[in-house]
Amino acid sequence: MTESKVLSLNALSKRFGSVVANDAVSLDLHRGEVLALLGENGAGKTTLMNMLFGHYMPDGGSIDVAAPNGEMQPLTLGHPQAALSAGIGMVHQHFTLAENLSALDNITLGSEPLFALRRDRAGARAKVQGIMDRTGLVAPLDTPVGKLSVGERQRVEILKALYRDARILVLDEPTAVLTPQEADTLFENIGAMTGDGLAVIFISHKLREVLAFSHRIAVLRHGIKVGEIATSDADERVIARMMVGEDTPVTQRDAMTPGAPVLTLSGISVRNPSARDSLTDVNLTVHAHEILGIAGVSGNGQSALASVISGLRRPDSGSIQVDGDEILNPDPKTMIKAGVGRIPEDRHHDGIVGAMSVAENMVIERLDDPEVQTNGLMNRSAMAANAEKLSQAYDVRGPGINARARLLSGGNIQKLILARVFEQGARLILANQPIRGLDMGAAAEVSRRLLEARAGGAGVLLISEDLDEILGLADRIMVIHDGQLTEVTSRNREDIGLKMAGEHT
Amino acid sequence: MMDILQILLSESFWAASIRIATPLIFGVMGALLCEKSGVLNLGIEGIFAAGAMCGWMAVWLGAGLWGGVLIAALAGAFFGLIHGILTVPLGLSQHVSGLGVTLFATSLSYFTYRTALPNVSSPPRIEPFRALDIPLLSDIPFLGPVLFQQTAMTMLALLVVGLVWYVLNRTALGVALQAVGDNPDSVDAQGLSVYGLRIGAVMVGSALMALGGAFLTMSAFDAFFFGMVNGRGWICIALVIFASWKPGKALLGALLFGAFDALQVRLQTEVGAMVPGQVFLMAPYVLSIIALVVAARKAEYPRALLTPWFKGQR
After folding, report:
1. In this complex, do B192 and A118 lie within 8 Å of one another by their Cβ atoms?
2. pLDDT tens sequence across A469-488
3. Contact (CB<8Å) A110/B171
4. Given this model, what pLDDT does residue A2 score?
5. Which chain B residue shows the shortest CA-CA distance from A93?
6. What residue stretches are annotated with the ABC transporter domain (chain A) (predicted)?
C-alpha cells in the first residue's frame, strides 16, 4: 500500500425528507487499499456510496478524485457518467445486469458510441480477456447473463467496472449472495487487483471477512462517521462497539433436551418447472425445545420448503406431520390451526398487509377467533386492546396501532410478525431469513425471541443464508442444495460451506 | 380442395398477401421497438389513424408522396412523445396512457378531417403510390409479380424489417435498447439515459406505426375513411407476442396474417354460396388467436416490460 491518495469525500451530507442519511461524512482512500465500510442497516453506507457514484445528489460537501496523473480533481456530483469517467466503478448489491444480453454486451454497454453502425467486438473481447487473465475473474462471455450463476454474475459486474479502467471499485455487500468458498475466491481476486493499484471500498456487515481482508475500517452510525481504525488494530468486539455504540449482549443459548417431534416431513418432493424451486425426497424432523437450522445459498429450494410447511404449496409426494398428527390436505389455514407460525422471508410482502392497520395485521391469522369477532363483525375495541398489549410486549414502535403497517420500519414489521406468531402459541415456528436486513439491535431481539420460544417448548425451523446466524442459534444443522437436504454433524464453517456448494465430501 | 390449391399457387394470391401484410409489418416493427425498450404502446390503433389521415392530407394539400410519408411519420413520433412522457418519466400506467393516446389520436384525426372537409359526400382522392415496375426483376416468373410489382412503401416496409434487425442485433444502440427493456438499472449504472432510450424508442416505434397507417391511404387506397384502421393496430400487438419480440418472426407473422386474409377473400368467392361470408371475415382473427396460443406460451418477454423506472430510486 502506498500513501498516494486517490479519493477524498469531503463532508458529504444527504437528507431524505426529515431523515438525515449522511451528516458531513469525510473519508479518504489510497492507492491499492481495501477499505471496509461498516455500519448497521440504515447507518448510511449505501447512501454514501450512491452519492459517490452520482446516483444521489448530495445536499452538501464535495468529492475529489485523482486523475490518472495523480492530481486531485473535483468530481461533478449527481452524474453517474462523470463518476464512471473519473474511474469509479460500483458493484451494487442488486446486480445491474441485463439478463437477455451476453456478459460481453453487458460489459461494453455504455462505453461504445451509441450511433455507430458497427461495433468493435473483437477489440472489446481482447480487452476483457486481458483483464480476466490478469485478475483471475473469469466468466463465460457469450452466454446470456440470465444463465450464469450468482458468482459469475458478480464477476461480470466487477469486469464491467475494470473494463472502464476503474481505479476505484465500490462493492456493496459483495458476499451476501456467495457461498463461503466463492467469497474467499472473490477476496483473492480483489487482492490481485489491489496489487495493480486498484483501490477498493467494500460495504459489509460480516465482521469476519472485514477483519480478514481489509486494510482499514471506517464505521458509520446514524449517518455519522463514528470511527476509523487500521484493521491490524481491530477485533470483533472493538468494531461491534463502534457500530452499535455499546457492547452487544451475547445471545446465550442454553443446552436443552429435545422433546417430542413437532414437525416431521417424510419423502417430500415438489416438482417445479424452475429447478431453483424444487424439492427432492426431503426428510426432516423438528423436536420441541429444538432449533433446526437449514443453511444454503438462496435459490436451492428454500422457498419451496417454506411454502410446503406454511401450506402454500401442496407437495407432489410425501407426508407432513405437525405435533404428531398427519396433515392430509395442507393449506395455509389448516397449517396455522395445526400450530405452525410463520415468519416469512419477504416480511413486507408476505408478512403483513401494508395497507391495513397494525392492529388488524396483529389478528389477521385468527379472524374467526371469538375474541376478535362476533358473527362476522370485527370487535374493534378488543383488537385495539390486543394491539396495545402486543406493541408493548414486543416493543413494536411506529406511528401507532391504527397506522398502516407499511409505515413501520423493517425491524418493527418483524416484531409485529413475531408478536402475532408467538401469541398464537405456535408449536412450530417457521423462521425464513428472520434476521436478514435487520440492524444489530433488532436482530438480537429476534434471536432472543426464537430462543425464548424454544425454551417454551416450541420447535423452530430456521432457514438462513447467513452461516453465522445458523451457527449461533441452531441445535442441529442441515444443508439444502439443489432441493435436497443433508444433515451435517460438523459445526465447521469449511465443511458446511462445501456442502452448500454441493460438494459431497 | 383443388380450388384452394389453385389459389395457393396463383401469383395474385401471394402478391395480395404481401400487400395486405405491409401495414402490419410497419405496425409490428413499431410495436416491437417500443416493447423491446420496455414500453407497451397501445396507442398504436390511434397512431395508425393519425398516420393515415396526416399522410393523405399532406398529399391532398399539395405535398409530394414522400413528403406525405414524412409528415405521417412526424405525426406518429408526436403521439409517441406524448405516450413516452406519460409512461416513462411520469411512470403512468402504460395500458391507460396507450388507450388514451388511441382515443385521442383517432378523434383528433377525424376532427381535423371533418374540419378541413366539412361537406364532402364522397371522400376526395389523391394520386397514390403506384406499383413499381423494376426492369428485369419484375419479369422473373412468379417472384417478379409477387415481390417486385409492389409499391415503394411495401419495399420500404421490408427494408425497415432488415434495419430494425440490424440495429437491435448489431449496433451498440440496439444492445442498449435490449438492456433497457430487460433491466433499466443496467443502463443507468453504465451512464446511459434510461428516459432518453425509452422515449426515443417509443417515438421511432410510433413513427413506424404511423407509416402503417399512411400505407392505407397512400398505397392501398387513395382516400381517407373513418374506421379504416379496423383493428390492424391490435393485430400488431398480438403479432409481437407471437413473434416473441424477434423482427424476423414478426415479419413472418405479418405475412401469415396477410395470407389468411387474402385467402379468405378468395374463398368467399369460391365457396361463398355455402358458408356465410362472416365466417371468412372472422377466420384470420380466429387463426391468429390459435397461433398466439401456440406461440405465446414460449414467448420471452422483455423483463422490464410495463415496469416504470424512476431515476434515483433503487
Report:
1. no
2. 898 899 999 999 889 999 99
3. no
4. 46
5. B314
6. 7-247, 263-505
Q: Which of A400, A424, A448 is the last residue of a domain?
A: A424
**Which CA distances in Å does A247 have to A226, A236, A238, A438, B115?**
15, 11, 9, 18, 80
User: A35: Cβ–Cβ under 8 A, 6 or more apart, which residues?
Assistant: A27, A29, A199, A200, A201, A202, A214, A215, A216, A217, A218
Complex ipTM > 0.90: no
* A345 in a structural domain: no
CA distance A106 to chain B (A): 8
Q: Which residues of A touch B (CB under 8 A)?
A: 50, 55-56, 79-81, 84-85, 90, 92, 94, 96-101, 105-106, 108-119, 160
Whole-angstrom CA distances from A416 to A42, A351, B301 are 19, 9, 38
Task: Provide the number of structural domains found in chain A.
Answer: 3
Cα–Cα distance, A215 to A448 (Å, whole number):
34
Q: Which domain does A87 fall in, by range?
A: 5-244
**Short-list A50, A53, A49, CA closest to A218:** A49
The CA distance from A291 to A309, in Å, is 15
Residue B81's pLDDT band (cuts 50, 70, 90): very high
Residue A348 lies in a domain: no
pLDDT computed for residue B264 by the predictor: 84
The boundaries of the domain holding residue B81 are: 11-117+150-233
Out of B189, B300, B303, name the one closest to residue A96 (CB): B189
Distance from CA of A491 to the nearest CA of B (A): 37
B126: in domain = no
Count of structural domains within chain B = 1
| φ/ψ (deg, to 5) at B189 | -65, -20
- Rounded to two decimals, the pTM is 0.79
A80 and A18, same domain (yes or no):
yes
pLDDT single digits (tens) B179-217:
999 999 999 988 899 999 999 999 999 999 999 999 999
Residues A281 and A214 in one domain: no
Q: What per-residue confidence (pLDDT) applies to A256?
A: 86
Supply B43's cell numbers.
396507442
Q: Is B91 domain-assigned? A: yes
Contact B182 A84 (CB under 8 A): no
The letter for the amino acid at A373 is Q
